[in-house]
Amino acid sequence: MKSIFKILAFLPLFTSCADLLEPALENNREIDAMYDEPSFAQGVLANAYILLPYTSPYNSPVTNEVATDNAVLNDVSNNWVKLATGSWTSDNDEASQWQNRYHAIQYINTFLERCDDVIWSTDENVRMLFNDRLKGEAYGLRALNMYYLLLAHAGWADDGVLYGVPIKRNSENPNTDFNVKRDTFKDCMDFIFEDCKKAIELLPTDYKAHTDADIPKDYKDKGIDVSVYDRVNGDHMGGRISGRIVEAIRAQAALLAASPAYAEGSGVTMEDAANYAAIVLKTNNGVDGIDPDGYKWYANGTEIDNLAAGSNPDEILWRSSIVSNLTKESDNYPPSLYGKGRVNPTQNLVDAFPMANGYPITDQNGNYNTNDPYKDRDPRLKEYIICNGDTYKESLIITGAYGATNDALNMESGYSTRTGYYMKKLLRTDCNPNPTYNTPQKVYSAYIRYTELYLAYAEAANEAWGPKGNGGYDYSAYDVIKAIRKRARITTDDPYLEECAADKDKMRELIRNERRIELCFENHRFYDLRRWKVDMSLLTEPAKGVSIVRAGTGLKYDKIEVESRSYKDYMYYGPIPYSETLKYDQLKQNKDW
C-alpha cells in the first residue's frame, strides 16, 4: 500500500515533466488502464485509504473534542471553537463529512465496477484471491464511509421521516442524475450491513501467517494451499481493512442506529448492537482479552518502537502507519516544555473522574476534598491530564494563577492553559520540542481500539438485557465495566459498581462516564452526546476551568467559566450542506437547519 501511495504521489510530477518537453495526450490516463495494470487499479482503491476519516499521526488531535464539554483550545479562532460557540450553520459546517466521504465512495464504486476484469495475476487462483480480497476491502471501506456520513448528516426532516444520505451504488459520470432524494436511515443501515456481510465473506479475519485450518473450504476445493493463500492474505498485507475490522465497523454503526436519537427509525435494536459487538469480543477472548495496559497504549514507547509493519498491539484493532513525529507533543506540551499547550482539558472532564475507590466525587462515600481535589482520585486522571503541581518530564508544572511561568493560567504568551489543565493523553514523554534538540519519536493514530468495542457491548447489553444479563454470552455489561475499572486500578472491591449493578439507569450513567474517560480526546464525545440525545442542558453547559490562588499556607480552588457552548435542540443532528440543497431540490434538509 505504501508503494502505491508513492506511485500516486509522484505520477503528476512525471506527467508535468513530460509536458514541459512535449505535451502528450497519452499521459492523461484513462480509467480503463486498470484492466492491464494491477498497480494502477490498486491505486484507484488506495484513494479510499488516503481519504480515511481518521486523525493523522502527523496532526494534533484538535478536532471535535474541543466542541464538547471535555476540552477547549487556547486558539479561539479555530473552526471547531466557532461551531461550538454559535456559528454552526448548514453553510458553515466544520463537522461535515459530505465531500470526502462521497469522494471516497466514488473511487470505491469505480473500482468495484471494473475489478473483476483486472488481470491481477496470470495464475487463475491467485487472480481470484486478489480480486476477492480487494473487493472485500472496497465493500468494507464503503460501509465505513457510509457510517461516517450518517454520523454527520442523518436526521429527522419536517415530514417526520428519519433520513440518512443518498446511497451511491454506482460510480457517477457527467450523465448521472445527481438530483436524487435522500434514502431513509433504515435503508442506509441495511446498505451498510449488506456491504459488511459481503466484505466479511471475502476478507481474511486477520492478515497473518495462516495455517491450513484458516483457509476457507471453497479455496481448498480449488487446490489453494497456505503458501498461495498467504501470498495474497499474509501478514505483509497488515494495515489494510480486514474481516475483523469490518466486524468492528458494523458494531459501531449498529450502536449508532440503536441509540436514542435514531432507534425509532433505524430498525436496529440494542440487542442487535450487543450481538454485533460480541462477535468482535469473542475473537478477542472475551473479557479476558482486555489489554491490562490498553488505557495508556499511546505511552508505551518500547512497544511502539518495536511494532513490526502492519502488526498491532493488544489494545489496537486498526491503526495508522507509524511515523517519526512530534507534532502532538509540540502542540500540546506545556509552554515550559516548549509546547503550545493547545488542547486544554476542562474542569467538567476532570470532575468526571471518580475517586480511587470508584465513587463519583459527588458521592459522600468518595471522601472528595475540595481543598485537595486531586488527592486519591482515579489513577487515569494523572495518566490523561496534567493538573496543578504535577511533575511531567521531571519538571514541576504550575498551572495555578499564582504560577510564575507561561504554564500558569491565562498568561499573555497565548500558549498557556485557559482551564488550569494540560492534555497528557496521546503524548509521548520522550519527545523533545526544544529547538536545540528537536527530538521526535515513533507515533501512530489509533483508528479503532478494542476498549471502544468493549464499551459498545456494555452499553448495548445493559439496555438489552440489564446490567448482569448476558444474552447467552460469557459476560455482561457489569463484567466488562468491572474489568475496565479494575484495569484502571480502582483500589477497592468497587462498591459503587455493585450499586449500579442493581439499577439499569445507574449502570447506564456509569457506562457513559467510563466511555467518556477511556475515550477522551479521541473524537467520540461530540457524537456520543448527540446519539444519546442527552438533555440540552448538557450540550449547552459551559466549558469550565479552575483558578487556583494562594490562601494562607494553602491553595484555594475556584471554578471558572471558560467558554460558552451554544447549541440548539435541532443540533442533535448535523445538516445537509446548504450548497447541496441549493443545487438539488430533491435533497430534504434536516429539521430546522
Quaternary structure:
single chain
Number of strands: 14
Indicate the mean pLDDT. Answer: 94
- Record the strand order, biggest sheet: 1-6
Largest beta sheet, briefly?
A: 2 strands, antiparallel
* Cα gyration radius (Å): 25 Å
Helix content: 40-55%
Number of helices, where a helix is a run of at least 4 consecutive DSSP H or I residues = 22
Report the portion of residues in β strands.
5-15%
Structural class, by secondary structure, is mainly alpha
From the N-terminal CA to the C-terminal CA, the straight-line distance is 41 Å
Taking pLDDT < 50 over at least 5 consecutive residues as the criterion, the unreliable ranges are 5-26
Shape: globular
Could you walk me through the main structural features you see in this protein, from its secondary elements to its overall organization?
With 593 residues, the protein is mainly α. Among the domains are: 1-53 and 97-184 and 194-200 and 210-240, no CATH class; 63-95 and 323-443 and 535-593, no CATH class. Helices cover 41% and strands 9% of the residues. The chain is built from 22 helices and 14 strands. It has helices at residues 2-21, 38-50, 79-87, 98-114, 124-153, 185-202, 217-221, 226-233, 243-258, 263-266, 270-282, 301-305, 327-332, 347-352, 380-384, 450-465, 477-487, 495-501, 504-518, 525-531, 536-540, 578-583; strands at 71-73, 155-156, 162-163, 316-319, 323-325, 343-345, 385-386, 390-392, 395-397, 422-423, 441-443, 446-449, 543-551, 554-563. The chain has a two-stranded antiparallel ribbon with strand order 1-6. A hairpin with a 5-residue loop joins strand 2 and strand 3. The two termini are 41 Å apart. The relative contact order is 0.13.
